[in-house]
Structure formats: structure tokens, C-alpha cells
User: Fold NADH dehydrogenase [ubiquinone] 1 alpha subcomplex subunit 13 from Aureobasidium mustum.
Amino acid sequence: MPQDMPPTGGYEPVQYKRNLPARGFRPATYLLMVGAICTYGFWRVGQGIREQKYANQFRT
Assistant:
């Protein structure tokens, strides 16, 4: 009984990696966004502290 043989030139390579689209932003973008939010928050806290100091000067 004859046996099936591979085609001449061989089989094409098997694609075993998944080509998934990149989702979301790059990590550097997230880092910049978090840094900007933290900077804004600390700035607002500083404003609140300054405002309390100024308001307490006139309470006697």
C-alpha cells in the first residue's frame, strides 16, 4: 500500500503565535497620566493648606 508523502518543497511553517491587536495605551502613557493626576492633587492640597493658614491668621 503506498504511503502519503509530504509535498515537494515541504509544508509551509505553522503559525503558532497569536496576532492580537494591542489594547490600551503604552505603559509610558499611563505613567505620565498618573504623574499628572498626582501632581495636580498635591498642588490642590498645597493650595488648601495655604488657604487654611491664611484664614487662621485672622481668627483671634
In short: The chain has a mean pLDDT of 88. DSSP finds one helix and no strands in the chain. The two ends are 109 Å apart (CA to CA).
